[in-house]
Predict the 3D structure of the following.
Amino acid sequence: MTEIPQSSGSLSRRLTLQLMSGAAILATMLYFVVLNVARDLAETSQDNILFASATAILEATSVQGEEVEVDIPYGALSMLGNVSDDRVFYRISVADTFLTGYRDLPQDPQENGAGSRYFTDTYKGESVRAITVMRRISLNAQAADVAVTVAQTRTGQMATVARMSQVALISGAGFFTVAAVLAVLTARSAIRPLNRLAGSVSRRGPKDMRPVIGPVPSEMVPLVTSLNRFMARLKTSLTRSEDFIAEAAHRVRTPLATVRTQAEVLLRRVDREENRHSLREMIRAIDESSRAAGQLLDHAMVTYRTDHLERERIDLAELVRELVARLQPVAELKDLTLVADLEGDAWLHGDAILIQNAVRNILDNAIKYSPRERKITVSVKRDGESINLQVTDEAGGFPTEGSALLTERFARGQNSAGTVGSGLGLTIAKEVAEAHGGSLILNNTKDGGGACVTLQFV
Amino acid sequence: MRYLAICLSALCSAILISFPLQAYEIEGQHRFGPDDANRVLRIISTADVDILEPLMTLYLKGQPDVAIDYTLVSSGELMTAIADEGAQFDLALSSAMDLQIKLANDGFSAVHESSATDLVPEWGNWRNHVFAFSQEEASIVVSPQAFAGLPMPRDRQELINILRRHPERFAGRVATYDLRQSGTGYLFATQDARTTETFWRLMEVMGSLDAQLFCCSGVMIEAVSRGDLAVAYNVLGSYARAREDLADSIAVIDPADITSMMLRTAILLKGANEDALARSFIDHLLRSAWGADTVPEYPFYKWHLDRSEAAAATKPIRLGPGLLVFLDAQKRKRFLRAWLAAIKQE
Amino acid sequence: MRFLLVEDNEGLAGAVLDRLRLDGHVVDHAADISAADHFASTADYDLILLDIMLPDGDGRNFLKAHRARQNETPVIVLTARSEVSDRVGVLDLGADDYITKPFDFSELEARCRAVLRRRGGASSNAQRFGSLVFDALAGTLRIGEEVITLRNRELRLLEVFMSAPDRIFSKSKLVDRLFSYDEDVSENAIEVYVGRLRKHLAGTDVEIATVRGLGYRMSLIPGPS
């Protein structure tokens, strides 16, 4: 009945995903930033020590007569061992001539003049971090560059970086986990007012058109305002259409009633047969149109109500008992016997007004189509899970073909020729039954002498 | 007289076998285990064979297809064999910590990590390449006879004072390693020079007393026990204390100011043929040295690892790149020059 | 019977008044609630016919006030609305019955009869003619000690004759009174009911005579006494 709008995905899931991907990006960034800082830090600290070591060695070079002598301080190399257990290499040269240390240790390729330069190279099969520091001295009255290169393998630095990257990974993962949990909670709490609104609106009865007045987050104010405005419009329009139906009925029926009554009065006073015939035709036409109007309005009402089914617990037996009592005078006019065959009570959940309307339409039909002095039986019986309301008459039954057509709007039973009415009554009964998940079953009695209309509620 | 010691030790220790293809000098070659063993662990070592034999025998027990080929060399020759000549060995055991560090630093060793290496104290393990398996003290061995009537010196300063006061008694009877020949002596001397200022004064005092220079601890210990020498400085205390037969004729003093502890180390050589055997032998060594259980076959004194109390003055020489400093040719040249100037005073 | 008709539509009210008066009823007409209140408080009615949509308010308000005043006069609501809840609503508010406009007067009469019968009121309505005592409300005919229960159409036919004894009713007029306009019946159908009534009246001092070409007439049999 209600059209479910196409879902374009969950808002809360989208929010969660966006927050989580934000968190993932931040966590990844955090990881790389920490990693880079760690790498820098590890490299810097190694560089600093290399610098200190090389400088210490450089400072221990001295010119003794015509030779350069180097008295490497013990600490110059042992300090390198303080930071990490890494292999250490050094090379000292004077004016490009190897003096001591590792002869093949690479030196800073851009070596020129005084200063210090760090570089990374491979030596003895391992990646090394190295520094070359230089000093200009005077040797044999000539300027000469003393170059000290100290290199250290990077195992310790790598280990530090690996350890830091593990820390970065763990903290990134931890950050992400916390952020993800927060994202879920945030999304939930952000979506909660929406759920609350949906809940409060869907819990309402079909005719509850009061505006939503509870406090809502400012982002939802436009939505709720629109909703309230829409409900106000809907309320106006519903009231208007209900009023319209009532007004239409009133406007049509009152003049019809006037004309009919006047025609009846006239019929009593007029003696000429031609005039009387005309008056009878007039009354019949009035009856037909008023009955048609009534059923159309009934149908409009049923259609309206089936969209807003107001279910309550009702006793079908009691409903039938009241209806039979009410229709008794009408049946008596034709000397019809109207019998209610009820077995105890029969409770079901349904819209009392609709069900009453449906049963009344079936009974109206039966009374209209039944020849005088016959019997109409209404029975309410439980059959397992279902409740069957059955109206049986002795009016000759439905034509064998076309009982399905009977419930189509405006279809008329063939035996109803000359009888005022329309097939809309059964259509109404069928729609009411189906709105309650039940069905309308049409068949003839076993002896073929009458019709049997069953409203089945499951 | 000075160089006699080299010949003595060489003659005493083993039969000299000549290998035409090798240039490094071998002092002895021994084989343990069955002749037809499938696997042979080749060890190059500076330790006298009888010191480590019990541990090796223990190791071979229960491994009938394993034999050990034990080559004894001096520490300098060990360096030559491995670094210069690429001699094929699985393990190198040496008391020359600096050279072992240099071998490892220059890439001749392989990394090894096991439950046994975890037992080694942090200062006894360099990069999981160099593992200490003994601590041996640099002691002063004296002749009690020579000190009759004098107080026994407890540290270097007291020794200096005694030597100065009694030059007549000690002239020609003080000795130490010849640093030009002995790696161990050079190591002890450089560490002394680094850690105590009394070292150079002591050398000068000893130089003024016409100090004798020796190649090896064993020779000095015997000379002291015979009464030829009164004082032998920087002698391996472990050797002296091991000579129970000389216990009455020598006294071993660990200087109370500071006693350097030499660490005997093992390295697993890169490209070892019997890599697995070498590793298991290192583990065997380390468990004997550092394990909680006492192994009777372990030949060295197990010093308390807790250095704060009983052995506060004992200080293991730290494994690390610092040791490379005194191997530097320039540095060595300068150091020896200074040392000779002090000890010879000619 | 005495009716109060509360109906604002002048045309309909006039027609209903005419129609009820034709049957000899006394009817007062109120066009709005205030007039209805006035009438209801000043006179006794057998029945009130009440419209819902009135110019000065909802007929249901009158109904509530009426019941609140403990006025027991039965009320039948005339409704033009289709919504069933309206019909149920008026019953809950104290209406005795309701009828949807436009209505068949036969149905209105039947409902009035049913309401009055339920209320047990207007028992004085028994009519006498000759030896007949006819109670239209109860639907009974008493002849001496014998009480005959009449069927609906017999009852209504007798009611027609009783309303004007000695008057000739054409078959056509009788058909109009007995059958609803949507029933296709021949005038001869009326003979069946006349026949049935004659059977009930056999042996009494009342007869229904056939007046050839004109219709039927109920009259006393001129007896020896």
Summary: Chain B touches chain A at residues 104-107, 126-127, 194, 318, 320-322, 324-326, 328-331, 334 (CB under 8 Å).
